[in-house]
From TrEMBL:
Stored InterPro entries: Transposase_17, Transposase_17_sf
SMART domains linked: Y1_Tnp
Top-rank taxon, per record: Bacteria
Protein name, per record: Transposase IS200-like domain-containing protein
Occurrences of domain Transposase IS200-like (ranges): 7-123
Record organism: Alloalcanivorax profundimaris
Length: 231
């Protein structure tokens, strides 16, 4: 797939790294400032925030641009500029803070959107940043409280009839952990700018966008074309 595919009304997994693997968060104030900027900007850019994980050198976001695809790039550009200015001023940093481009993969609703939530909210543990699963800079706490800058997620809401039931179902789901194969699938797809979902999702995006967005693998036969009747 050439270029970055962004579509209104779909969830996108955003990954952004620090330049040359450098830290983009040095202290609590940095984390808090970044999340405050996300909260301030997402409404103006008509985005729904469905999940996040902030690591010392990486940013993971699940975002849905609900009007214009370009709103996502404008949001990420503005967010990066404002945070960089504050970071450089506080820490005396000089030079580029971010990698040149953020990485982005469309996510299928249902299982794969919940799987991405589970993956990013478990990342601190997978990276060895916490032993007990507690990391203050993911959306997990906001999800439990149904508060903060987190927007309602249809798949999460469908887990139960009330906040307590939803949280218990989600907690059981996340307690299952993330298999290495699932983590690799999500990581590879996002890094390559591909779709995080199944073949039906690929067909849907190709139909809606009118573009071939994924190469057809050897196990994925091409659809047969109907033969034209002779005149």
């Amino acid at each position: 797939m050439n270029g970055r595919l962004v579509m209104a009304g779909y969830t996108h997994y955003i990954l952004r790294r620090g330049h040359n693997g450098e830290a983009v968060f040095r202290d609590v104030d940095d984390y808090q400032r970044y999340l405050a900027l996300v909260g301030d900007l997402k409404g103006a850019h008509r985005l729904s925030l469905q999940g996040w994980c902030l690591l010392p050198d990486e940013i993971h976001l699940l975002i849905n641009p609900w009007r214009e695809p370009a709103d996502l790039s404008r949001f990420m550009q503005r967010l990066g500029v404002l945070f960089s200015a504050a970071y450089n001023s506080r820490h005396g940093h000089v030079g580029t803070l971010w990698e040149s481009r953020f990485q982005c993969g469309l996510v299928q609703q249902g299982h794969w959107r919940l799987a991405c939530l589970r993956y990013l909210e478990n990342l601190p543990g997978r990276r060895g940043l916490t032993d007990d699963g507690r990391w203050p800079w993911t959306s997990r706490q906001a999800r439990q409280r149904s508060a903060g800058i987190l927007d309602p997620d249809p798949d999460y809401l469908a887990l139960g009839r009330n906040p307590g039931e939803r949280w218990n179902q989600y907690r059981e789901f996340t307690a299952m952990g993330v298999s290495d194969s699932e983590a690799e699938f999500i990581e590879t797809r996002v890094r390559r700018g591909q779709l995080v979902g199944n073949d039906a999702f690929i067909d849907e995006i190709e139909r809606v966008s009118g573009k071939r967005v994924e190469p057809r693998g050897p196990g994925r036969p091409c659809k047969k074309r109907k033969k034209r009747k002779p005149c």
